[in-house]
Amino acid sequence: MGSMDDTMQTRVDAIVVGAGFGGIYMCKKLTDQGLSVKLIEAASDVGGTWYWNRYPGAMSDTNSHLYRYSWDKEDLQKCPWSRTYLRQPEILRYLQDVVERHRIRQHMQFDTQMTSAEWNPEINSWTVKTNAALRFEAKYLVTAVGLLSKKNYPSYPGIETYKGELYHSGAWPKQYDLSGKRVGVIGNGSTGVQIITAIADDVKRLISFQRTPQYVVPSGDKIATPDYRDKINADYEAIWKQAKESVFAFGFEESTTPLMSVSKEERERIFENAWNEGNGFRFMFGTFSDIVTSEEANEAAAQFIRTKIRGRVNDPEKARRLLPKEIYAKRPLCDTEYYEKFNSDHVDIIDLNETPITEFTEKGIKTDDGTEHDLDAIIFATGFDAVDGNYTSIPFKGKNGQTLRQRWSDGATSYLGLSVPDFPNLFMILGPNGPFTNLPPSIETQVEFIDELIAQSIRSSSGQGRYSIIEATSNAEHEWTDLCDNISKDSLFRRSDSWIFGANVPGKKKSVLFYFGGLGEYRKVLDAEAKSGYKGYSFY
Question: Which InterPro entries match (predicted)?
């Protein structure tokens, strides 16, 4: 056996990678089919994104009652939550509870990171290697590695010389104490906004090193009263039906009214109502139908938010730095009094477009105006190499010997956000060009489609003594890629430097990474695919 003496090999029907929302449900569905399944997870427990992102203030941007599985009816009625938006600890406890109640943990192996995956055409299986001296052979490989998990670290001179505490929001330690310390936060997307809001009152000094001013609206977060919960429980069936048939699955009706079709007074009233009700997606898509397609409508929404910022931030200079100058066309953010934190004397903001960071020093950060900012701790809220980052950093080798990284050198593509030609029996949950929505309902939709597709392959091979191989066709992939491109081509989103199109990672080619047709339409596409006998796939 040579070098394999220390390597244990296990053969199973399916390997699932990742123990977040997608991996947990996929593991359950495949084991319910009677397949042998091993779920491997790099972390020490379940949770996925919500295991690693335990930074202060970590919160879902979706209302609590829709940030969960719809299939677990008992949970929908009984699982408690304290507020209308879930914090990280509650989401983690929820996923742990699902795993225990449905006895899924027995199929899981933690502290086990996939290091490579290679299709073996001689045995029509995937060979998956890990960092734990384990090798798996599996007919099916399902990746549930998350949209936002491959950490994006900035590159500044002298980082290695800094002697203080250094954190990345996506790898937060279980034990930390920032109270009374001088803290710098680099980045102010959703994560940066949440961290700044959460720690501002406890630290001695806080400096936001802002890369891009953001449009942030209130979340509308409040205590979940018994009456509120009773109403949700009574309406859950209708709530989920509406969400799954909508565009974004955030629990509101997307607007069909163009902004210029109503008077200026009516516009202000609609914006004000949405601002007071809260939620970033509701403000962007529940007010008017053309905010992300019409420059005039977009500017009206942007001006409304800028006016709100000026009214919330007392210091005119801080307000000026916080005012967004770009179009309002990134993932919409929501907060719990983010702007108000800058009214404290010990909270400041540095616009890195005006005063860039030149280097890290032993004591902190030096900017190009010559100032050295002494800091006890620096937090990278700099996001992730989103969507395809985990696939291009780990060698996935298909049937022709090509890796996904090589195949995607001009941009990541797929069929339905699930499958890639020449990579048989590989299924990606939340792969490139999947739906841009509230994630748990999208994950459910994809898991259920993959589960039935695998079941169909097994049925088609019944009596033949082997499994069928499932592979997306090149024509199907091209058609889906073109559709995703065409749907988004008139969107102002494509003109912004956003992680949604891969623009946040230096050197990464900007490309379409999502299907913007909405969850309702996506579900219809998958339903039509199944009814057609899976015409976009080859079985052999």
Answer: FAD-binding_Monooxygenases, FAD/NAD-bd_sf, Flavin_mOase-like
**Any idea which residue has 């994006």 for tokens?**
152
- Each residue's pLDDT tens digit, 299-340: 999 999 999 999 999 999 999 999 999 999 888 999 989 999
Share of the chain above pLDDT 70, in %: 92
Coil, strand, or helix at residue 530? helix
Q: Residue 247 corresponds to which amino acid?
A: V
As a whole number of angstroms, the distance between CA 49 and CA 190 comes to 14
**Residue 11 structure tokens:** 């053969």
The DSSP annotation for 381-439 comes to ---B-TTTHHHHHS-EE-TTS-BHHHHTTT----BTTTB-TT-TTEEETT-TTEE-S-H
- Residue 126 phi/psi, 5-degree rounding, is -95, 135
Write out the H or E segment, with its range, that includes residue 526: helix 519-531
Tokens of 539: 């079985």
Can you say whether the dihedral through the CA atoms of 105, 109, 110, 116 is positive or negative?
negative
Q: How are the residues of the chain apportioned to helix, strand and coil, as percentages rounded to the nearest 5?
A: 35, 20, 40
Domains in the chain: ranges and CATH: 2-150+385-539 (3.50.50.60), 183-380 (no CATH)
Q: 81: which 2 tokens?
A: 């939550």
The Cα–Cα gap between 445 and 452 comes to 11
Could you report the per-residue pLDDT of 41-52, keeping only the tens digit for each? Answer: 999 999 998 998
Report how far residue 298's alpha carbon sits from residue 302's, in angstroms, rounded to the nearest whole number.
Answer: 6
| Helix extents (H) in 63-109 | 73-78, 88-101
User: Taking a C-beta distance cutoff of 8 angstroms, is the pair 536, 416 a contact?
Assistant: yes
Q: Report the pLDDT value the prediction gives residue 265, as an integer from 0 to 100.
A: 97
Q: What would the two tokens of residue 459 be?
A: 């049925």
Over the stretch 157-213, which tens digit does the pLDDT of each residue have?
999 999 999 999 888 888 899 999 999 999 998 899 999 999 999 999 999 999 889
Q: What is the DSSP letter of 289?
A: T
Contact at 8 Å (CB) between 113 and 68?
no
Question: Residue by residue, what is the 3-state secondary structure of 246-281?
Answer: CCCCCCCCCCCCCHHHCCHHHHHHHHHHHHHHCCHH
**Which pTM value belongs to this model?**
0.92
Q: What's the pLDDT band for 438 if we cut at 50, 70, 90?
A: very high
